[in-house]
Amino acid sequence: MFNIFPLKGSLEHVKGFYCDGVSVGLKPNGANDVAFIRSDVLCDVEAVFTTNQFQAAPIVHFKRYPENFQTNFLLINAKNANAMTGRKGIEDIDTLFASLRATYPALQNPIMSSTGVIGYRLNQEKIAQSFSKFDFEAKNSDGAARAIMTTDSFKKELCLRVEPENGTPFHLGAICKGAGMINPAMATMLCFIVTDAALPKADAKEALSYAVEHSFNAASVDGDTSTNDTVLLLSNGQSGGYDKEAFKEALALLTKHLALEIVRDGEGATKLVAFEITGAATSEEAKKVAKALSNSLLVKTALFGEDPNWGRIASTIGASGVTCNDETLEIKYDDVLVFNNTQRELDKEREMKAAAIMKQPSYTIHCDLGIGSGTFTAYGCDLGHQYVTINADYRS
Which residues carry the site feature described as Involved in the stabilization of negative charge on the oxyanion by the formation of the oxyanion hole (predicted)? Predict the structure, then answer.
């Protein structure tokens, strides 16, 4: 048995970790744009990266380290993805870390992560200015969370305190960013998770894989997969506490909360919708349907228009390539039945009830394929005019 409690803030509650965010002029109006996270001691590292074949320089740099390496420092910048910059982009990271060692000599196997515009080399001069501005003893998770934002309309962070019934408490804290270029093909955002749990390396990989699969990998805003998607889990063991089941559940709760915050903050989004699939032939087929629905532009625009057009749902299911049959299919918006074999036409009463549900900021579209026992839930949002406005002038 164990208890899990949310705490206000995020990284500042996790023992042995420090963080800060500062402005060096990458963003306008003096907003924070460079951040760090460091640990008093070396941390084990577990990571999941984008499936995009054009992986950004920070990911390539990370993969140069030997397997099971440890680190004590993470540097993050906004406004520049350092993607599609070739070998020079990787060399720029090495140059920055060589400069950072003059300010922070304890640096070991540092990691860099970047977000922003693709195709431009880092402004090394500006980013290097952050090294003299950082307070390396700070626990400024608010500043760090704001520094990594791009088109985000709000910061995204969470800390959970885990109290095993007969053990030492431990913490998991995280900051993340994401609002656009979000597709369920690994994260499509940046997320940095730290824990003071005495986490075994093998358990870390298992827990992170499970958590990502049911959170970030189940989230979609616009169906586009970034070059920089990263989820990092750093564990320093400083609490001395650990419980395998408690940690796995807490990490899953943490990542699901942050994934839903990303979808809720989808560029111009007004709706957060869960696509809950049951009765599929297999769980893999359920996942295929759920992700097809969360990515469909026709479905997304129907959500924006608050139009209970179940035909778009059914069409997307049929086009997904899974085993399905219109005689066994059932579609509900929350608890309102909009389609099954005996009620194929949406009468006025049910349409009014479904339309009322679609006016809510969040709801569930449940699709029972009636074929087998496979289940999966994906999360998506609507797509409206503001998305086009934001992305039409993204570089500005």
Answer: 115-116
Neighbours of 47 (CB within 10 A): 16
Q: How far is CA 378 from the centre of its chain?
A: 13
CATH of 272-392, one of 3.10.20.340, 3.60.21.10, 1.25.10.10, 3.40.50.2300: 3.10.20.340
From residue 301, alpha-carbon distances to 192, 343, 377 in Å are 32, 25, 20
Burial class (CB in 10 A: 0-12, 13-18, 19+), 320: middle
267 is in an annotated binding site: yes
| CATH class given for the domain over 2-264 | alpha beta
pLDDT confidence of residue 186? 37
- Structure tokens belonging to residue 362: 């969040």
Model confidence pLDDT, tens digit, residues 201-253: 999 999 999 999 888 888 776 555 567 788 999 999 999 999 999 999 999 99
Q: How far apart are CA 222 and CA 381, in angstroms?
A: 9
How many CA within 13 A on the CB side of residue 153? Answer: 14
Report whether 195 belongs to an annotated binding site.
Answer: no
HSE, side-chain direction, 13 A CA sphere, residue 45: 27
> Cα separation of 310 and 338, whole Å?
7
Q: Which of 50, 115, 188, 377 is catalytic?
A: 188
Q: Check if 51 is active-site.
A: no
177 is annotated as contributing to ligand binding: yes
Q: pTM for this one? A: 0.83
Residues forming CATH 3.60.70.12 domain(s) in the chain: 2-264
**Has 345 been labeled as part of a binding site?**
no
Is 285 annotated as a binding-site member? no
